[in-house]
Write the structure tokens for this entry.
Amino acid sequence: MKTVIVWFRKDLRLHDNEALYKAIQSADQIIPFYCFEESEYGKTHFGFNKTGSFRAQFNIESVSQLRENLLAIGSELCIRNGKTADELLKLVKETNAEKIYSSKDIHSEEIAIQKEVEERLAIPIDYSFGACLYHVNDLPHPYQDTAEVFTSFRKGLEKKARVRELYPSPSKLPKVKIDIDWGSLPSIEDLGLKRIPIDSRAAIKAKGGENEALKRLDHYFFQSLALQEYKNRRNGLLGEDYSSKFSLWLWNGCISPRMIYWKVKEFEKEVKKNQSTYWLIFELIWRDYFKYISLKHGNKIFQLEGIGKSERNWEIDKERFEKWANGETGIPFIDANMRELNSTGFMSNRGRQNVASFLSKEVQLDWRMGAEYFESMLIDYDVASNYGNWMYVSGVGNDPRDRYFNIISQAKRYDANGEFVKHWLPELAEMDASNVHHPWTANQVLFSNDISYPKPMVEPDYWKKYY
């Protein structure tokens, strides 16, 4: 009887799972395995938790649902907490497994885990590549030749590449006949963290897991029909359906980007095809772009000068950084977005661009401090997208234009009545909409004992024409 292990990583799903599909085709007995890798719960360079409480809890929920789904088709999930190489080595010895099937990661810390597993285990590992919309082998060029400009990358894919069909979800797996200690889910405390309840003001009350991801997909596409308005509403700030929120489940593979793509095609056929349906696919291509740029440039994405090799005078100032991180800059649009992040583990795309621009362009702090803070706090942290976007906004990426966000202009454009700011800054709830984005210009006595809101830490002259 041939026994193999399926090592789940950032592919916590049964649908469109190439590694699982290959294992089913090749073996009589399949041992599904997941390890809460201890290195993922360490500290970043600047001392933040690599995985904060919000993402850790979401991941625990995701693994729990994967186990439930495997049990429903006659299997189980072996869960471990520790060093992946150690735990896989024990499992291979315990089960006499002949092969491991898994998904390949592209970033240095994850590659180091892969290499240690390969060096210590005397059995072959068959890696699949399922994190992207377009498979690496289907690119119209070697990944090393990925275009530095997004538009060129996108046009090349749209003209010459295709999106693969989905791998089917298994309806049944053979019962494991070996006596195994399947292990139990760790608590958030077991991972060295404290549980933080998500604020009731959150835009979406998301839970981890494949079923939750597919439920969200069905709601956004076929129940609410919100997809048909995506392009016009995607820069929203309040509410569940201004954007798809699929990133919450994409980062750890609860949903496949190809599943989203083919459901868009189904929507276009059955409901409506317009700029919004195209734009959702457009955003998935952006996600691919950052992954292939990351694969091309490797650890350069973590360097101060970025892949653009831009020499700038960056500072490291703990006091100023903490004002930004805590939502105490005195600039309401920045503070509201940061308080949303700190209270929910989520922030809109528009918010992320603005707070990143503010930290790197206005405060001129080392952009990697912000990137690492996002890494710690975001539920949907994705290495390539996070560092790619931070480089992009900070002017050290591969954007030919040095982007700049005028915070006051942005606030008045995307939060014209101050509803978002007042939602997260109750101390400004009574402020008139005309002044709420720059309260320091108001006639009323703002900085009194009655209203405890700080003065702005910066006030560039180019903001003033938008007062």
About this structure: Residues 3-129 form a domain with the Rossmann fold fold (CATH 3.40.50.620). The radius of gyration is 23 Å.
